[in-house]
Amino acid sequence: MDNDIKNAVNYIKSQISGMSSDDRTEHHNSQKISYDKEYKLFSESYDKGVCYLCNKSFLTISKNNPCLHWLLRRCKFKKKHFKSLYEKYDYYELSAFLHWVSAKEKGSKNINNLKEEMSERKKFEITIKWKNIEWTLDCSHNDFIGHGGSQTDFPHWHFQMRIDGKQFINFNDFHIPLSKDDQLKIMLSEDKESGFCHSFGYGGFGMQETMDALKDNFDIMNEHLLAGDAENGTVHMQSIITTTDGSKIDAEVINDARAMSQKTDKTMRYCLDKILKDNKNISRTTIASPSEHVPDIAKRTERKRR
Ligand SMILES: [Zn+2]
Ligand SMILES: [Zn+2]
């Protein structure tokens, strides 16, 4: 590992721990303002089919100005052009763009960044879908160190791109260098004491952020989730109702809740809460899990080192 990066990690850790809570709030607020501004520009341009980075239509490609919108493949982007993209944009920049376009279309449900589905051998392993395209971003601990062989002996990551389910870029086609800034962010995120937490913001929430939010603020999320989201979309919610005094639950209650859910598009859990709110003899448990519509993480098989 580069000594520069180690020093930078320590420097940032000391900066963070030295900040007063006022400093933190101020830092957070100024970051939020620039984030909001950038996201708004992205979102408004996106709605017009225009890329906010280069200000050109998604349908265009100009070889002397490589741009991340090529990855949407609305232009004549070819595999051989990919190198010019990662030479210009680092991992976090590229990843942020893919998170944003995917979330813009379908919310978090097409971004599988679930930690429990990620292999322990990985620094990151994320599959993102957007329309007919699927990208997987993958970096093992070995890649991060730089695995053997003179061609690959530097910190890097791997990328797979499928169009209509067919391979377009394979994991082994490129060993994409991690920038110093990438390495710094990865190391800081792994360091539990650093106080550093990386996210692509509300514009790029994946399933992990959604499940975390659901765990932390179940009641708030329950108010806002739509039945369509809960049952076919992002999260699968299963409600279990039991009585605490052994009495039977009136089937009518369930039917009423179902009718209310259909009418209002609120989740079953939300409707049951409303209907049963005065009934003290009932206990409700909800199990929330990522929906089966969330894409699987496309797994890369690593060659064994000799
Ligand atoms: Zn562009
Ligand atoms: Zn590798």
Descriptive report:
The chain has 306 residues and is α+β, with helices and mostly antiparallel strands. It is 42% helix and 17% strand. It contains 11 helices and 8 strands. The chain has helices at residues 3-17, 21-47, 82-88, 91-106, 141-145, 180-190, 207-216, 218-224, 227-233, 251-264, 268-275, and strands spanning 111-112, 122-130, 133-140, 156-163, 166-169, 176-177, 235-243, 282-290. Strands 1, 2, 3, 4, 5 and 6 form a 6-stranded antiparallel sheet that branches. It has a two-stranded antiparallel ribbon with strand order 7-8. The longest helix has 27 residues, at 21-47. The two termini are 22 Å apart. Bound molecules: zinc ion (2 copies). One zinc ion (ZN) binds next to loops.
- Tally of DSSP helical segments: 11
Major sheet, described briefly? 6 strands, antiparallel
Task: Label the overall shape.
Answer: globular
Q: What is the CA-atom radius of gyration, in angstroms?
A: 23 Å
Strand content: 15-25%
As for the number of domains, it is 2
Q: Unreliable segments (pLDDT under 50, ≥5 consecutive)? A: none
Mean pLDDT: 89
Count of DSSP strands: 8
- Distinct small molecules: zinc ion
**Which percent range fits the helix content?**
40-55%
The SS-based structural class is: alpha+beta
H-E order: HHHHEEEHEEEHHHHEHHE
